[in-house]
Design goal:
Length: 442
């Protein structure tokens, strides 16, 4: 719904040459709503919107861009910049073993992430990795780390609940040194909420092992609460990075913005499944799109307005709204517009990830060839046939097939597909060009 609103606003701002107080208000309100809906903390939202406004006001609108597009561009860039630019991998620049300390609330995903990181460091950086658990409050936690460490193909250093976390970590460090490990990952006890005793404990642990990385692990589903947690951990520890977990959930991931803003530490990784390989290097730009709830719609908007005849698209939308007369000419128009936008594959790349994941199962080369053949078939029809496909009888189908150099079955298939599309259009009644194209792609 948000995307539609934004798209509408982008259109409304067409034809205005610069961004002004007046034309930017509605857009900023939508952006604010989008951020709040994504669970970005209120003070962070306020700050952010003010920054965007500052940057946007008075800005000349470049070339063929419209103020709305320019603003969406500014918002997206600022979001991505706030969450960090470029890729921030794990820093291992230390006398080996490089020690990595995991911090965060209970259930945030520290233990899981420890194993995921171990696997990442083994596979991508060819490191010899040791893990150890300082979670002495729950015996099961130590076992859990042992299990997932095995899955990761790393080695695990034993600990027991009667030991002090600091002693455990120092023993592991000694072992790692003597056995030439490159990295020691130190998992820590969970905190259900910010707890002074436990905070002091992890501070002592930090002072003893002097980690090169102190990673704050935070659950993306935590939303607004992430701010308080982040603040407490930042005050207790010199955080060097953030891991945002459970991004495979349906949260829009606004916590990323809040946590980054509060801690100032770069978001290095994203957890995207419970499984051991469910860790991705954090991509700020992609995440900006997710927060705004519009995939890479920014790029799409630009491509659409560059490649698509807006008037034709609007005429089409009007037709659909009136519920009648979606004919093969319109169908052809859609096919051609898709081509103008750089073909199916580039189009798919720009869709929100849920959709492009589905699209990933489609053979794109084949789909593109398919589009060309369909065009050929429609072009072999007369104007009347395109308007009234129901008139096309068997003999004409043969003619059309011959004209397009395809089999009659293919003509039948196209007509069938067209009928389905027409049916869908009636149901949708003006859901917009975007929607139609997504349906066509998927
Ligand atoms: P800890 O208390 O901080 O050590 O958290 P755990 O590593 O034990 O994880 C808590 C729960 O979250 C477990 O059920 C994990 O499987 C799950 N979990 C951790 N990371 C992710 C993730 O990226 N995605 C999903 N879906 N679940 C995760
Ligand atoms: Mg744990």
């Amino acid at each position: 719904a948000l995307t539609e609103k934004l798209t509408r606003l982008v259109k409304e701002m067409r034809g205005q040459a610069r961004i002004t107080e007046a034309n930017v208000q509605d857009m900023l309100r939508e952006v604010r709503m989008a951020l709040l809906e994504a669970d970005v903390a209120l003070p962070v939202v306020r700050d952010f919107v003010a920054r965007v406004k500052d940057k946007a006001l008075g800005q000349e609108v470049m070339g063929s861009l419209k103020p709305g597009q320019t603003l969406v561009g500014i918002v997206n860039k600022e979001l991505a910049a706030t969450m960090g630019e470029g890729v921030a991998d794990i820093n291992l620049a230390a006398q080996p073993p490089a020690v990595i300390l995991m911090a965060g609330l209970q259930g945030a995903g520290k233990t899981t992430t420890t194993a995921k990181l171990a696997k990442h460091l083994i596979e991508k950086r060819k490191k010899k990795v040791l893990t150890v658990s300082g979670d002495v409050y729950r015996p099961a936690a130590i076992e859990q780390l042992k299990t997932v460490t095995k899955q990761a193909g790393a080695e695990w250093f034993p600990s027991t609940p009667d030991q002090k976390p600091r002693d455990i970590a120092l023993a592991a460090l000694d072992h790692a040194r003597r056995h030439y490990f490159d990295v020691l990952l130190v998992d820590t006890a969970g905190r259900l909420a910010v707890d002074e005793v436990l905070m002091q404990e992890i501070r002592d642990l930090h002072a003893a092992i002097k980690p090169v990385e102190t990673l704050f692990v935070v659950d993306a589903m935590q939303g607004q609460d992430a701010v308080n947690t982040a603040r407490a951990f930042k005050e207790a520890l010199p955080l060097t990075g953030i891991v945002l977990t459970k991004l495979d959930g349906d949260s829009r991931g606004g916590a990323a913005l809040s946590v980054r803003q509060i801690t100032g530490a770069p978001i290095k990784f994203a957890g995207v499944s419970e499984k051991i390989d469910g860790l991705e290097v954090f991509d700020a730009e992609r995440h900006a799109g997710r927060i705004l709830g519009m995939g890479d719609i920014v790029a799409l908007v630009e491509q659409v307005s560059a490649g698509v005849d807006m008037e034709a698209a609007q005429k089409l939308a009007a037709k659909v709204k009136s519920g009648d007369g979606f004919d093969l000419n319109d169908f052809l128009g859609q096919l051609q517009q898709m081509k103008q936008m750089g073909g199916l594959s580039s189009f798919m790349d720009k869709l929100p990830s849920e959709l492009s994941a589905k699209a990933g199962q489609v053979d794109l080369d084949r789909a593109e060839r398919d589009v060309r053949r369909k065009e050929g078939i429609i072009c072999s029809m007369t104007a009347l046939e395109r308007r009234k496909p129901e008139l096309i009888k068997a003999t004409r189908k043969k003619r059309i097939a011959a004209g397009a150099g395809v089999q009659v079955q293919e003509v039948n298939r196209l007509l069938k597909e067209f009928e389905q599309m027409q049916e869908m259009m009636k149901k949708m009644k003006g859901g917009g060009l975007m929607k139609m194209m997504k349906k066509m792609g998927g």
